[in-house]
Every structure is written in structure tokens, then in C-alpha cells.
Predict the structure.
Amino acid sequence: MREKSFRVGYAVLVMAAVVIVLAGIKAAAVIVVPFLLAFFLAVILSPFFLWLKAKKVNDLFALLIVVSLLIAIITILFVLVGNSVQDFTNNVPAYEAKLRTELLTLLEHLQRWGIEVPKEDILNLFNMQSVMQYIATTLKSLGSLVTKSFMIILTVVFMLMEISQFGNKLAQTNTNSLEKFIDISNSIKRYLLLKFFISAATGIVITIGLKLFDIHYAVLWGLIALMLNFIPTIGSIIAGVPAVLMAMVQYDISTAVGVAVLYIVVNVVIGSILDPRIMGKGLGLSTLIVFLSLIFWGWLLGPIGMLLSVPLTIMIKIALSTQPNTQWIAVMLGSGENGIVNDKK
């Protein structure tokens, strides 16, 4: 009886500690979000930095090259996307009016074909003003990260400096968990690096496709496709919404359908065929877990938490898979595929 009470008390204590930690993370989201972004950037840039070091490039010079590359990319994105975000936000009222007109036209066509539809109810259900305002607000929140770019870059610099000394520190340690820690680090690095290149390919293909359709802000929608590609299935659907709406505003419903088909084809080819082959088995999440992680990390860290939801959950899954007593949790988080999460490739 006493042992049972102890277990219950321990479980309650653990849950209370988790709640306190989550409350602390949410309160410190302003600090945590830039740190997480810096961490992901450092992981993605670290292979290039280590490659330069392997080529006998001086540490300081190698760091300068990598940071210069990062600053150049951020500057280019700011120039290409910054004006687009501002222009899109200013034109939201005009877009909302055009979308409402297009929807009314579609409903009138349905009535001519003998399909009776409640116009007002549908117009209230699909509140175009709310949709466009939400897109604009989200873009602004993402754009606000540019103001924190200096702190993010500075954090990346220190992380890369630490990476250069990390191997020496590991060599000086002698613990039983060292091999597992190295495996976890390599799996996380491999996942983030491969996922970034797959997402970049998705963004480039979407941008080129939208350019062929002559859709406004094609680079912006391509960048959104790149970021949301980190969220399987759901992300590609969300990424396609603003581009489809923009096609409807610019042209007509048939063009919007064409843009939707573009997103579907890209999602099927890259998301359903290439992605599993490149990433390998065992790194997938079930659709339910993807959706729940989207809600949870979005609540905890805001819009950026939604973008990072799947990478963060994958990192947790990789860590859980290395311990025998928590492997079952990693299996429950997975998509049901056979394979080892802790891939040493």
C-alpha cells in the first residue's frame, strides 16, 4: 500500500514538474524561439563549417565565411520578401473584396446549374476578410524575426565555435551514455540537414511553378512552402492556401485550380515519393501526432513553434528511441513504418 502511494505521489510530482517547465518555456518564448532558430541554423551550417576546417582553413576564417554566407542569405530574403509582405498587407482589403466577388460568382453559377445554396451562410462561413487578415498577421509575425536576426546570428556564431571544440570535449569524457549521445546528435543532424534540402527543393519548385503562372509574390509563397514543408501533409495544404487565393484574386477560379494542382503534384512527388526514400524509414510521425504537435508547439511558442513542431517532436522521438524503457513511446509516435529511428548513416 505504501509503495503504491509512493508511485502515485511520484507520478503527480513528475506531472507538476512538467507543467512548471512548460509554463516557464511559454513565459520565456521571446528568448526560447530565437535560440531554437539559432540551434537549427547552426546544425544545418555545421557540416559546411566542419568541411572548411577539414580543408585546413583557419577556424576564425572558416567561421567568417559561414557567417558571411548566413548574413548574405538573410539579406537576400529580406530584400525579396520584406517588400512583398508589406505590399501584401497593404492590399489585403482589395484582395478580400475580390475574393468575396469571386465566391459570389461561383455561388451564382451553382444556382444556375440548379444547385440551391444558402449564400449568406456560406459567405459567413468563409469569411475572406478573416482569412486574409490571418495570413497577413502571420507573415508580419514571421517578418518580425528579422529584427532579432543579429541576436540569432550571434548565437549561431557561438554555437559553431562550440562545435569546433565539441569533439575534443567528447574525447576527454568517459561515460557509458557517450555513444548514445553521439548517436542522438548524428541522427538529429542528419534529419535536419536532409529535411532542409528537401524543403529547399520544394520551395524552389513551387516558386518556379508560380512564376510560370505569373502569380504575385511567387518568392514569398515559395519561402512559405519551404518552411511549412517541415510539417508533413498538413504543412503543404496550409502553404497552398495563400497562393491559391492569390491566383483567384489575380485571375479566376480555373487558374486557382491550376495552382492547387501544382501544389498537389509537388506534394505527391516530393512529399510522398522522394522524402521517404531520402529520409529513410523510422523517421516518420503519425498524422495524429503531427496535428497534435502542431497545436501543442504552436500554443507553447507561437507561429514559429508551429513551423518547428515536427523537427522538435522528431528530436524527442529520436531521444526516446535510444532508451529501452522509452522505445515504446517512440514507436507510438511513429507512422507505423518499420525501421530504426536512430540511424547512424
